[in-house]
Amino acid sequence: MKEKDNEKIGEKVPLSPQPSDIVSEMQTSYLMYAMSVIVSRALPDIRDGLKPVQRRILYAMHRLGLTFGAKHRKSATVVGEVLGKYHPHGDASVYDAMARMAQDFSLRYPMVDGQGNWGSIDGDAQAAMRYTEARMSRIAGEMMTDIEKDTVDFTPNYDSSQKEPVILPAAIPQLLLNGSTGIAVGMATNIPPHNLKEITDAAVCLIDNPKAGTDDLLKYVKGPDFPTGGVIFNQKDIHQAYATGRGSIVARGEAEITEKKSGQPQIIVSSIPYMVNKAELLTKIADLVHDKRIEGIKDIRDESSREGLRIAIDLKTEAYPQKILNSLYKHTDLEKSFHLSMLALIDGRQPQIVSLKSILEEFIKHRVIVIERRTRFDLARAKERAHILEGLKKALDHIDKVIKTIKSSKDREDARLNLIKQFQFSDRQANAILEMKLQTLANLERQKIEDELKEKLKLIKDLDALLKDPKKIRRILKENLEKISQQYGDERKTKVMASAPRSISTEDLIPEQETVLVLTQGGYVKRVNPQEYKAQKRGGKGIIGLAAKEEDAVREFISAGTHDDLLFFSDKGKVYQLKMYEIPEGKRTAGGKSIANFLSLAAGENITSVLAVPKSKKDADVSLAMITQNGIIKKTTYRHFEDVRRSGIIAVKLGKGDTLRWVNIVRKGDHILLSTKKGQAIRFRESDLRLMGRTAAGVRAIRLKKDDELIGADAVDPKSSALLLVVSENGFGKKTALKEYRLQKRGGSGIKTSKVTAKTGSLVDAKIINEENQEIIAISKNGQVIRTGLENIPVLGRQTQGVRVMRLNLKDAVASLTCL
Questions:
Q1: pLDDT for position 818
Q2: pLDDT band at 769 (very low <50, low <70, confident <90, very high)
Q3: 131 part of the active site
Q4: By C-alpha distance, which of 819, 656, 621, 641 is closest to 723?
Q5: DSSP labels, 690-724
Q6: Distance of alpha carbon 449 from the chain centroid
């Protein structure tokens, strides 16, 4: 009954909700939301390079008369105008966008000329809008040129109470000049700023030659030109980014290594990469110093001023400036990649990745349309004025009849109709004649009308010709761009390096210097600065060189560069590889760390030989000679060991009960000299040995007597003035001329090299020394170390026992020696 009653009285019956699929509803709603964000908020239009909020800010300032020649006004006035008429969102979004448009470290060519605190490169926020003042910058005026001449379309604002431009006339390629950054839904744009001269030159090139490619345009556009300066690298990456619209360009801050007046080294940073917060950069450097990830920095100061950015980094006297600078590039934003994603809206609707050429083509297309619309607007106004002038001239030619007609009319309307009827004037001409002043009857005034009419007719002819000739329109566009370039152009701030920056490897962070590797028989290793061992006279007692554990003694003591490769050969015939800098540096008295921490040694496997191979020795003539405890030798090419895996590889096939003891670098033409603990030595040519495979066993090098064993093996250039240095276990040593060792065939018993007595004890080490060697460091089994000049050790014959080099404690003995 109630439903029937409702129908009778005409009331609407509520409709039940219609069911819908939630998946399709979510897809539709999300797509609408995404497109709204893309079009109305996050992405710039390719034509004027602005997002909606930026466009509204500039238009509002234009409507308020805040051009560059006007007085600054409160920013709150501008924000209120934008919010009230064009942008119904929060005031923070408008003011933040406005502040960025005023920051000379964010935009290459700021659009807003501000007074007050507009933020800083340190990340400081701008002052409240009630404290700051703003107006349009001079170059921003070029964005509004001829907007009043119907050059762009207008659309109703959010409440249809106002009109706002869909796009700005934009006489400058704003999208490339200042770039753009925005995150939409499912897509993002990141376009870098550029130099105005370069972009306008490229645009002119494209106007003259529409078929110009990326290569042609890059003759003018060198790359991004960031407002913060810096250096960008790699022309290849720049070309790829501009050709495809996507890419990555490495940018670095400018840094110079200098010295203070006191001689103390210093790094001066004069620019930083784009969008890097200077305060955060300083904090990061301080944290790295505090955590000891960067060592050698004494003080950091921000000395920036109105003259420019300046960060002073004081270094310690013993620091390595280039190493520290490399560390800063590697671990901080002093080096940063700018990832280009040139995404923009085509025709205000379609988001698309665009190339450099596409952006310039769309800008040129937009400007051609603007010039055409401006020309049509001027042509229409010129025709309107010419029409009026023609009527006035005709009236003056028949002035008496015109006056008589007007006088005989009963009112204005009747006069207007009579003029139209008798003289065939148009309605507009008739009104103009009725409003004509009597002064127009003067001869000079008549002449002015005739001159103006001629001028308007000529203008109409020129404008008509312009509209009919696209080449003339492009010529005007070209002239406008050249004028803008001359007026606003400046020099690049960002330097461009054609090649890619050398990647900062671990070696770049390690100073290249001489260092000493100490390896004990117990398998403990460390790296020591040679300066830890001060030079002494021969025969001295030495200083503590190693806090060795009980019953541990030094096995290897070699000098090499920190960047050299270290090949570790084990008694099992395997080889492992490390860089010298991978061994931790320790003090002279430190015990070191177990070699098992760095090498994957098997149970019971010990390192018996360590070979430092400088980069300069990695060539085709280099071979390695491997000598075993039992006098077996093998020659193999170094190439087998250029890239040794961490788990090691087989270096030589060993006989039963034999162990690998020495490995030496051998060059073509070298001689090999082997020494035994009983004082025997043999010298033979390396050519007596044929090259063998990596896993081969080798051949006999020397025939050893009972209870004798090898204690030294070296390769020597026969043309050099090298000497053989031998040291006995009781601290005696001598140098012997190489010529005293006659050349023999391998496999013999050799000849005497030193007189071995109970006083001297058995020989423990033998080294070939040359002019490069100036000092030796000898270390005892108990860790005593002596460093002495080689000139303190005399050159003696083969049959002599030598002189005391090191005075040892009771029950101590020399373990090994190295030459520096």
A1: 72
A2: confident
A3: yes
A4: 819
A5: -B--TT---EE---PPTT--EEEEEEE-TTS--EE
A6: 67
Closest to 580 (Cα-Cα) out of 604, 556, 603: 556
Strand order across the 180-183 sheet: 180-183, 188-191, 335-341, 246-252, 231-233, 495-497
Please give the C-alpha separations between residue 566 and each of 580, 599, 610, in angstroms, as whole numbers.
6, 12, 7
pLDDT at 349: 83
**DSSP structure class, residue 338:** E
485 contacts: CB under 8 Å, gap ≥ 6: 196, 197, 200, 201
Contact at 8 Å (CB) between 615 and 564? yes
Nearest to 612 by CA among 643, 581, 580: 580
Burial class of residue 13, CB neighbours in 10 A (0-12, 13-18, 19+): exposed
Bridge partners, residue 302, by sequence: 311
Q: Two tokens at 147?
A: 């907007």
| Element housing 9 (H / E) | helix 2-9
- Domains of the chain, by residue range, sit at 50-169, 254-333, 360-488, 512-819
> Among 382, 392, 386, which residue's Cα sits nearest to residue 432?
392
Residues 6+ apart with CB under 8 A from 793: 538, 725, 733, 734, 735, 776, 803, 805
Alpha carbon separation from 654 to 62, 218, 673 (Å, rounded): 90, 63, 21
List CB contacts of 27: < 8 A, sequence separation 6 or more.
none
What is the per-residue pLDDT for 640? Answer: 82
Structure letter (DSSP) for residue 301: E
The two beta strands, 343-346 and 350-353, are antiparallel
For residue 442, pLDDT over 80 is answered with: no
Provide the token pair at 101: 């448009």
Catalytic residue among 86, 131, 329, 488: 131
Which residues 6+ apart lie within 8 Å of 75 measured at CB?
A: 95, 98, 114, 116, 129, 130, 132, 133, 134
Tell me the angle at which helices 278-290 and 321-331 cross, rounded to the nearest 10 degrees. Answer: 120
Name, of 142-146, 516-520, 597-601, 703-707, the range with top average pLDDT: 142-146
* Fold of the 50-169 domain: Topoisomerase II; domain 5 (3.90.199)
Predicted pLDDT at 231:
95
Domain 512-819 has CATH 1.10.3210.10: no
Specify the CATH number of the domain 360-488.
1.10.268.10
Burial of residue 551 (number of CB atoms within 10 Å: 0-12, 13-18, 19+): exposed
Q: Which amino acid is at 541?
A: K
Contact (CB, 8 A) for 696 and 626: no
Distance separating alpha carbons of residues 244 and 234, to the nearest angstrom: 16
Question: Is the domain 254-333 a CATH 2.40.30.60 member?
Answer: no
Question: Listing from the earlier edge strand, what are the strands of the sheet with 732-737?
Answer: 763-769, 723-728, 732-737, 803-804
Judge whether 179 and 44 are in contact, CB under 8 Å.
no
